[in-house]
Amino acid sequence: MKQFLIIIIFVAMTSSFALSQTTDKQKSRNAKIEQELIKLEEEWHNAYVRHDAEPLERILADEYIAVGGNGSSSSKAQSIEGLKADKSTYEYSTPYDMDFRFYGDTVVVIGRTKEKGKAQNGSEFSVEYRWTDVFVKRKGRWQCVAAQVARVPPPKSTSTQTQPVDSVKKELEALYTIQDEAIKKLDFKAFVGTLTPDYSVKLLNGAAFNRPQIDDAIKNDMARTVSVAKSISIINNLTIKGDEAIVNVTHEASRILNDAQGNPHQWDNKVIHQETWIRTTDGWRIKSLEEVKQVYLLRDSKPLNS
Questions:
Q1: 25-150: same fold as 2-19+157-303?
Q2: How far is it, in rounded angstroms, from Cα 120 to Cα 79?
Q3: I need a labelling partner for 195 at 20 to 30 A (CA). Which of 123, 139, 246, 278 fits?
Q4: What residue segments make up the domains of the chain, in order of their start?
Q5: Residue 279 CB neighbour total at 10 angstroms
Q6: What is the rounded CA–CA span in Å between residue 207 and residue 69?
Q7: E strand map for the chain
Q8: Which of these CATH numbers, 3.40.190.10, 3.10.450.50, 2.60.40.10, 3.40.630.30, describes 25-150?
């Protein structure tokens, strides 16, 4: 199943990626630090989902201070008490689109968060934040000393004024071009920039995968991509419902992928998907993919027996 998921993600979905190689020691060190801080950010966010204060005790420095969008501030102790008092239930709290600035043993992390859940009174919420965190390395571990966060205003409703189909189609075609070019250039960041944090995939056999599972499969397998000869996306049909676009799209890809023993194989694929795009404050982003038809899937010019 894992291998099949990888095939779907990297071939059927045509989202093929490879780790960029570099001999620059500083870049390698920075990449390692980025992964460490991404893990800390994820632990920090998941602490609110689990209502678990322990990660904050570790991650926040004693002198930590956070400033909100309204100018209010909170200390480490106040942040921990706020978490403990929070009666909301969270479906997810996902950090994404993180960027890093390195200054010796200090790193500034700029990112976004999407949260979805229910408040204590039962009302549902779905919000987005932009934030800046400052981390300092002390005694071998990273701690956040300061943070600033602001809520992103929701997009304006278009329920009474639907954008013309031709206009939306041009925007989505441009985004599919970005995806295809990212695949050819093995540019992971450019590709995932077109996805929502809660992006999901559903296969023909009914198997479903969420964004963390998809990211994990990609991260564990992207280094096996040797080259991408072709990646093409063609919109067959488009339906617009307010801030949502339902797209029937054909993806065609050809690439070379190493197997587990390091032997290269040619993969050729053509697949039809139904993809749901939503309009966000940053433009259109793809929220879900459902496999409709596998036209062909070849390994070394032979049909794959799945």
A1: yes
A2: 19
A3: 123
A4: 2-19+157-303, 25-150
A5: 19
A6: 41
A7: 60-67, 73-75, 89-103, 106-118, 124-138, 141-151, 195-202, 208-209, 225-241, 244-258, 264-280, 283-299, 302-303
A8: 3.10.450.50
Q: What gap in Å lies between CA 165 and CA 238, rounded to an integer?
A: 7
- β pairing state of 264-280 and 225-241: unpaired
Sign of CA dihedral 36, 41, 42, 44: positive
One digit per residue, the tens of pLDDT, for the chain of length 306 reads 444 444 444 444 443 333 233 334 555 668 889 989 999 999 999 999 999 999 999 999 999 999 998 899 999 999 999 999 999 999 889 888 888 999 999 999 999 998 989 998 989 988 999 999 999 999 999 999 999 999 988 766 544 445 688 899 999 999 999 998 988 888 888 888 899 999 999 888 888 888 888 777 766 667 788 999 989 899 999 999 889 999 999 998 898 989 889 999 999 888 999 999 999 988 999 999 999 988 888 899 888 754
DSSP-derived secondary structure for 162-225: PPPHHHHHHHHHHHHHHHHHHHHTT-HHHHHTTEEEEEEEE-TTS-EE-HHHHHHHHHHHGGGE
pTM for the model: 0.54
Reply yes or no on domain 2-19+157-303 having CATH 2.30.30.240.
no
Tell which residue, 101, 90, 94, has the closest CA to residue 133.
Answer: 101
